[in-house]
Amino acid sequence: MLQKLKYQRFTILxxxxxxxxxxxxxxxxxxxxxxxxxxxxxxxxxxxFLFVVLAANGVISRYKRISTAAIFLLGFLGxxxxxxxxxxxxxxxxxxxxxxxxxxxxxxxxxxATFSILVLNSAFKYAKA
Length: 129
Prior knowledge:
The chain is mainly α. Helix content is about 75%, strand content about 0%. It has one domain. The longest helix is centred in the C-terminal third of the chain and has 29 residues. Keywords: Membrane, Transmembrane, Transmembrane helix.
């Protein structure tokens, strides 16, 4: 089992980082003049973009290729992970507020990564032909 997970070590580390960063209490940091109005959504989008890219990289490292079904499965898992974080923020980490716009930003990041991986996968298949 550990042998299979070795290809996903960066994804697991990034997942733990996302989980911590999305659930810690930041106090008044979000109200700082250094952040613009949509900064939180941009961070959510970036977190989940990189999550899917790292997961896809782990699959490619292990199998030397990735199928379209696997790409969409990773996208689904990314959105599911984002939803889990929002539910945790809503019910467990009550100092944070789980909301739909954050989940939408997570889904946008997942969608961007999924689209990018699909385009690159198609380009690599075409280049080999």
